[in-house]
Specification:
Layout: E1 2-7, H1 9-17, E2 21-24, H2 28-40, E3 45-51, H3 52-57, H4 59-68, E4 73-77, H5 90-98
Parallel strand pairs: 1-2, 1-3, 3-4
């Protein structure tokens, strides 16, 4: 299975240096098109990393995929600017996903 990153151009460039393919996006339309391509492609994408700044552009779709998609697994990662102060903690994500408080 492959890892794919969708997000900020700097993050995509950084991951490409480590051999991870990706698509740089800056608008909601580009982000939706990149996700559509990643989810429907015939390749074996196992994990899709989405940077936080791009995830905010299509928040409801990313939240739905994070909670319900198993293959590929959609994971939101920090943007090059760092973690936003209003980002949920891992405990909050687990509580929303499966109803268990860590």
């Amino acid at each position: 299975m492959k890892v794919l990153v969708i997000g900020h151009p700097d993050a995509v460039l950084g991951f490409s240096l480590a051999g991870v393919h990706g698509q740089a996006v800056t608008t909601a339309d580009e982000a939706n098109a990149a996700l559509d391509s990643a989810l429907t492609s015939s390749s074996d994408n196992g994990i899709i990393l989405v940077t936080q700044d791009v995830a905010k552009l299509i928040q409801s779709r990313v939240e739905d995929l994070k909670l319900h998609s198993t293959i590929p697994l959609v994971v939101e990662i920090p943007s090059p600017e760092g973690i936003s102060p209003d980002a949920p903690t891992l405990s909050e994500v687990v509580l929303r996903a499966i109803g268990i408080k860590l």
